[in-house]
Amino acid sequence: METAAYLFDMDGTLLDSMGMWVHVGDDFLEKMGIPDPDHLGAEVITMSMRQSVQFFREKFHLPQSEQELMDKVNAMVEERYFHSLPAKPGAKELLERLSRQGKTLVLATATDRYLAEAALRRTGMLSYFSRIFTCGEMDLPKDDPAFFQKAAAQLQLSPQQITVVDDALYAVRAARAAGCQVIGVADGENLPDRPQMALLANRFLPTLAAF
Question: pTM here?
Answer without folding.
Answer: 0.86
